[in-house]
Amino acid sequence: MSLSKKEWSIAIEIVYSIAIALVFLPFFVHNQATSFERADLIGTLTEITVFSVLYFSIAYAVLELSHRSKITDDERCDMIHSKAYKLGYILYEIALLVFIGSLIRPAQAALQNGGVICVVLSLLIAISTIKSVYQLYLHRTL
Fold first, then answer.
1. 33 φ, ψ to 5°?
2. Counting CB atoms within 10 angstroms of each CB, which of 31, 75, 82, 101 has the fewest?
3. pLDDT tens per residue, the chain (142 residues)?
């Protein structure tokens, strides 16, 4: 099963979402019941930024070295992008309702402090991963 350059690019995005979820999300889950200290939060956000820049720089450099051909976008790619982003938009709307519902529900006091950040990051990572997996599925099947 040989993947094209476009499919490898989508796979890089999927691996990134999973890596962020496994490496950095536990920090937010662990501290969701307490308020975040400013220094810890800034330090973690700096680590995420540095990790993201290094990850994408190295991953796309390796991708460019291994696949010298250019990515050509045609009508099929436009249709796949449209379907994937439509799904992503629908998931964002559902996540917004879940987020607002979790803020309104008074029984969940943990969302007053760090739980909000944890919920938002979890929803964003899940949506990004689902959208990328769907996009990869469409590239493989259409």
1. -80, -20
2. 75
3. 688 899 999 999 999 999 999 998 888 887 776 666 778 878 888 999 999 999 999 999 999 999 888 877 889 999 999 999 999 999 999 999 988 887 777 655 545 556 777 888 889 999 999 999 999 999 998 7
